[in-house]
Amino acid sequence: MNIDDDNLLDNLSNEMSDEERDLRLRNQLKKIELTAKYDAHFMEGESKVPASVEQQWLSNIEAFERQAQNPKRTTVKAFAGNPSCKLLSEISEKNLEEEVERLLNLLATKNIVVDFLCDVPAADAYRFLTEELLEVEIDDIQIEGMNHHFIYEEFHPNDEYDAKQCAEDFLSSLFWLESEMFSHRLARNGLLDSRNQPVTKEEMLKTISDFRASFISFERPQLQIVSCVVEGDNAVVNIQTEWSGLVNEQSPPVRKFGISTLRLVRCEYGGFDIIQALVPGWNCE
What we know:
Layout: H1 18-38, H2 51-68, E1 73-75, H3 76-79, H4 93-109, E2 112-115, H5 122-132, E3 137-139, E4 148-151, H6 152-155, H7 159-174, H8 181-185, E5 191-192, E6 198-199, H9 201-213, E7 217-218, E8 222-231, E9 234-246, E10 254-266, E11 272-278
Parallel strand pairs: 2-4
Antiparallel strand pairs: 1-3, 5-6, 7-9, 8-9, 9-10, 10-11
């Protein structure tokens, strides 16, 4: 981050009160200090948030960096104050969901947030919370407003969810000219074109680039998953797809509707990658 000390005051709005202007200047100086001391990076330009809010945010960053220099290790259980938990066998089935909710709320009050991306049986959720999560080691860093965030599926991957998410992300990005997320969803090897012929990733990206370059804009596509089948390390996702794109300002939009079929393979780093995408109006009808 480059900040010109001589121009700090010039960057502050003339409409601010003296107090606001002084606080914003001190915030800028704090950013310089944090950059020099901790190699922190901040966006250029004047902040749009109130100076008092930015000041608190900078204080939290400083506190985090200070504690992160040599953090102590602890368990989630100790961090949460060693909450008392019943054995799963001691909880009646009708009270199990309530007990899961109670524990999640208790953890949240201790800045430990747990998300379940998919439906998980209450017994599995409670077992995860009490037998796995509470024993996980974390840095003992406690900053007001900062949460330790955990996702159940990172401990227990859901193949169907991962395959669907990958397929939807690919299609959404394909019709979003400001994004190239689709390139990160493609496998490095084993790719197939619409005729089931092997292609390199570079060739696949060139095909996508040529398709996108033929439009000046797209409307947000309407996507609805029809089916998802996972067999071992392979998956096939069918998505009802409706999209429209504008070739130029003079022509009516091109509109396409049909089933997109995406074939995926398990990624060595987790989740799935796409090896083939058949999309109406792009490479198939």
